[in-house]
């Protein structure tokens, strides 16, 4: 059964401006540790790719927060929600701490899709209640 649906579109230029204004602190606020390491590596090789990576993670977390109905209110925090990848490349939501406990207690499962183009990153998230027999 569908618990919630969330979508978000993010202007990559806005993320670039935030990085310019606040520096790495902005990325440290939004990204979990694993994401931060990936962002740093991508940014070092190709800065534009690093900005798009950050924009897709920002968008995915916004979409997830909408799908679970919390917005950016506890236990939902930027760093408690991580966007990982399966070996196939499919993006997945990985939760930590109180957010993971809340999500698991409700018996929920998330499905995520992310995409980006030059100026925009977009995400779509469906959260479902796991059926128990």
UniProtKB/TrEMBL annotation:
Gene3D superfamilies: 4'-phosphopantetheinyl transferase domain. It is found in: Cytoplasm. The keyword Mitochondrion does not apply. Its EC number is 2.7.8.7. Its cofactor is Mg(2+). It holds the Pfam family ACPS. Keywords: Cytoplasm, Fatty acid biosynthesis, Fatty acid metabolism, Lipid biosynthesis, Lipid metabolism, Magnesium, Metal-binding, Transferase. InterPro entries: 4-PPantetheinyl_Trfase_dom, 4-PPantetheinyl_Trfase_dom_sf, ACPS, Ppantetheine-prot_Trfase_dom. GO terms for molecular function: holo-[acyl-carrier-protein] synthase activity; magnesium ion binding. The keyword Membrane does not apply. It comes from the Bacteria. Residues 4-125 form the 4'-phosphopantetheinyl transferase domain. It is an enzyme of class 2 (transferase). Transfers the 4'-phosphopantetheine moiety from coenzyme A to a Ser of acyl-carrier-protein. This is Holo-[acyl-carrier-protein] synthase. It comes from Acidovorax soli.
């Amino acid at each position: 059964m569908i618990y919630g649906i969330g979508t978000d579109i993010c202007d990559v230029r806005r993320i670039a401006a935030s990085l310019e204004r606040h520096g790495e602190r902005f990325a440290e606020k939004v990204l979990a540790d694993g994401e931060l390491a990936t962002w740093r590596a991508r940014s070092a090789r190709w800065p534009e790719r690093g900005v798009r990576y950050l924009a897709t993670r920002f968008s995915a977390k916004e979409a997830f927060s909408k799908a679970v109905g919390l917005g950016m209110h506890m236990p939902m925090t930027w760093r408690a929600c991580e966007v990982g990848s399966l070996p196939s490349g499919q993006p997945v939501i990985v939760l930590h701490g109180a957010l993971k406990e809340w999500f698991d207690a409700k018996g929920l499962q998330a499905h995520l899709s992310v995409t980006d183009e030059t100026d925009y990153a977009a995400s779509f998230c469906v959260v479902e209640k796991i059926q128990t027999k």
